[in-house]
Design a protein that fits this description.
This protein is α+β, with helices and mostly antiparallel strands and about 450 residues long. The chain is built from 8 helices and 27 strands. About 15% of the residues lie in helices and about 35% in strands. The strands form 5 sheets. Strands 2, 4, 5, 7, 10, 11 and 13 form a 7-stranded antiparallel β-sheet that branches. Strands 1-3-6-12-8-9 form a 6-stranded mixed β-sheet. The protein is elongated.
């Protein structure tokens, strides 16, 4: 077993050529499968790593790791290969099944640790976090570019801090792949606040007129603010509430259909006796692609008779995955976090007013694009680094930007923070107010 911090590793790279294909594991000399070694930071935190022929995806033989009753156990299997070129893209796939694991995302780890020719780490590791079921097994996938100076890579398959767990790894591959093509999406957010309109229909008409004036053709997503059916009307939530689909979604659908664009807006939805502050998403054909009911209601909305939502849905579009938040949701960390964990790449934020710093924080901490459309809040398109790509400040103007959902936003010191976010986030630690029962 190799013991020691990875950052200090100096073992020369193996000459195993790419592509790598590993399965049907069997012990060789030294009781290790050919090319594999085990790792832990310290002897007392070493898990039990062994070859198990009773659990495998195909031919007998899988790489097994057991917590072995040790709450501090952290480590597992490694495979080193040369033949990597900086700037080229690579895909890691691996399959695992596990028993006794409390939090798979946190406790089961597959990653690529990039090495220079002398076996020294040249950049932060990249984490595999995309997972899909394969019967009782799960397939994890990572696609990432090798950093400058990389000559090889270590495939690392670990179990961490799971004393009662065992994980089996099998069918492991590393391939060179073409760099992903850009995935451009043009987003337009409308800024403006109708006044003294007297009706929901007139307020909506003014927003649609702003779209006609300011948004170019071939825009993929158009975003309108929160509560477009109440702003400027002088009416109550109950007076403007309507079903979804309903009159307002029908008018929005006409625009979406004519422009072949997705269109999102905040309205007030009635369902039975409940009224929700809802964001609706129309697809390019004018169909309701989804809706989100605002989870975090401020006191004023509760006193106005609104009911809170209970979920954070994410919607698949023809360009990627989209989530929605509404106004006060940005005040709290969990809405954007939940959307990112469910795969949202772009969050649409219809908003009245709020704290711009918190909006920026939501983009940075979750590594997502955010488009905001507001009244007493900046209307903008923001990237995962919190940088404003477009801003609209004048009434009736639009913030328009083309974003690339395939662009990799990596920190030079910390690496790809989206991958780290997915693997390091601690959902397993309970957070409850003092004095309340668990």
């Amino acid at each position: 077993m190799r013991i020691g911090m990875l950052i200090l590793a100096s073992t020369a790279l193996a000459s195993s050529p790419l592509p790598v294909r590993q399965s049907a594991f069997a012990p060789a000399a030294g009781q290790m499968p050919a090319g594999w070694q085990t790792w832990s930071a310290r002897p007392e935190t070493a898990p039990r790593a062994f070859v198990d022929t009773a659990h495998s995806l195909g031919a007998p033989g899988a790489l097994a790791i057991s917590g072995n009753g040790n709450a501090a156990a952290c480590g597992g299997w490694e495979f080193r290969t040369a033949g990597v070129e900086g700037g080229r893209w690579y895909r890691l796939t691996a399959h695992y099944r596990a028993e006794g694991v409390r939090d798979e995302a946190l406790q089961i780890l597959a990653r690529l640790d990039w090495m220079g020719a002398a076996g020294k780490r040249v950049a932060q590791p990249d984490y595999a976090y995309r997972t899909e079921p394969r019967g009782p097994w799960r397939k994890v996938t990572l696609e990432a570019p090798a950093p400058a100076g990389a000559a090889g890579v270590v495939i690392q398959l670990y179990l961490q801090n799971a004393p009662q767990a065992t994980v089996w790894w099998d069918d492991i591959a590393l391939d060179r792949i073409p760099a992903p093509a850009p995935r451009p999406v043009t987003v337009a957010s409308i800024h403006g606040k109708p006044a003294h309109t007297g009706s929901a229909a007139e307020s909506v008409r003014q927003f649609l007129a702003a779209i006609e004036r300011t948004v170019p053709e071939h825009t993929d997503v158009i975003l309108l603010p929160e509560g477009i059916t109440v702003v400027g009307t002088g009416k109550s939530y109950a007076e403007v509430a309507e079903p979804v689909p309903g009159p307002t979604t029908a008018r929005l659908a006409e625009v979406a259909r004519a422009r072949r664009t997705y269109l999102a807006a905040g309205i007030y939805e009635r369902e039975g006796s409940a009224i929700y502050n809802t964001a609706v998403l129309l697809d390019r054909a004018g169909q309701v692609a989804g809706k989100y009911r605002k989870v975090y209601l401020p006191r004023e909305e509760i006193e106005g008779g609104l009911t809170p939502g209970i979920d954070y849905p994410v919607f698949q579009t023809d360009f990627g995955k989209v989530g929605m938040m509404i106004c006060w949701d940005a005040q709290y960390a969990d809405p954007a976090r939940a959307l990112a964990l469910r795969g949202a790449e772009l969050i649409l934020l219809p908003i009245w007013g709020g704290n711009q710093t918190l909006g920026k924080a939501r983009a940075i901490e979750n590594r997502v694009f955010i488009a905001a459309s507001g009244y007493n809040y900046p209307t903008y398109v923001m990237d995962p680094d919190g940088e404003l790509l477009a801003v609209a400040r004048e009434p009736g103007a639009a913030a328009i930007a083309t974003i690339d959902l395939n662009r990799r936003y990596a920190d030079p010191w910390l690496g790809d923070l989206r991958g780290r976010f997915m693997k390091e986030l601690r959902w397993d630690v309970p957070v409850r107010p003092a004095g309340l029962a668990p």
